[in-house]
Amino acid sequence: MTNFITNFLEVFYVLIGLIMLFAGIESFRDKENPARIGTGLFWVILAVIFAGGRLLPYPVIGGLILLLGVLSLLKQIKPGNIKGIDEKVAETSAKRLGGRIFMPSVVLAILSIVIAQFTPLGGQIGIGISSVVALITAVWMTKSSAKTAYHDSERMVRSMGTAGILPQLLAMLGAVFTASGVGELTAKAISGVFPVGNHLLGVVLYCLAMAIFTMIMGNGFAAFAVITAGIGIPFVVAQGGSPVVVAAIGMTSGYCGTLMTPMAANFNSLPVALMEMKDNMGVIKQQAPIALTLLVIQIFLMYFLAF
C-alpha cells in the first residue's frame, strides 16, 4: 500500500510540473519581458524538479536549485506581461453562476477531508484528487475550454512568481535546522540566561519563541520541532505542563507569527501578488494587531490550562 501511495502521489507532482512547464513556455513567448529567458528557465527548471525529481540524482537537483538562486540573485525572474482576464466575461459568468461559483472550492475542501479521514490514501493524495475534481467541476460549470484552463493556470503561477516556491524552501530549512541541532543550542543559550522552574516565564518564552521563529522561517511546523525541543519541553513540559495542551497552544502561538511575516509567502505574499496590491506589506499590516492580541491570549491559555 505504501508503494502504491508513493507512486500515486508522484502523479500529482508530475501534474504540478506540467503547470510550471506551461508557465515556462508562456514566459519564453513573452517578448515584452526583458528577463523572459531567465524567467522561462526558472519555471522550466522547477518543472523538471517536480516532474522528474525521483529520477534525478540528488546532486543534480541541488545544482538546479542553486541555479534558481542565481537567476533570482541576478534579477532575471520577472512576471512580465501577463494577460488578464476578460472583465466582461468574468462579470457575466459571475452573475449567471451566483453562489454556485464557490462550488469548486467546497468540493475541494469536503472531498479532501473525506479522503484523508476515511481512506488509507492520506491527506496529500486527498488534496491532489480533490484539486483535479474541483478543476473538472469548475470547467463543467463555467463551460470553459481547455485553452482557458491552460492560460488561467499558467497566469496564476506566473503571477505568484518566486514566492510560490518559498514554502517548500522554508520546509527544507526547518528540516536542516532540526537535523543540525539548533533546538539543543537554543535550550543551552536560554537556560544560561533564564532560570528553569518559573511556569509563567517558561510559557512566555515558549510562546514568544514560537511566534518569532515562525516569523523567521515562515513555517510554523518547522519552528515547532526546533522550539519545542529547545524550549517547550525543558521549560514547560518538564516543569509539569500538559504535553497535549502545550503542543496545541504552542502551534497556535506559532501561527500568530505566520500572520506577521512576509516569509509566510502562501499567506501574506501570494495574496499581494494575486490581487495586485500596491502595498507589499498590506496584508501583514491588517493582520498584525489581531495576531499580537491572539498571542497574548495564547500565553494566558497555556499558563492556566497546561498546569
Automatic annotation (TrEMBL):
Source superkingdom: Bacteria
Transmembrane regions listed in the UniProt entry: 12-28, 58-77, 97-118, 124-142, 163-183, 189-213, 288-306
UniProt KW Protease keyword: no
Keywords: Membrane, Transmembrane, Transmembrane helix
InterPro entries documented for this protein: DUF979
Pfam families named in the record: DUF979
Name of the featured protein: DUF979 domain-containing protein
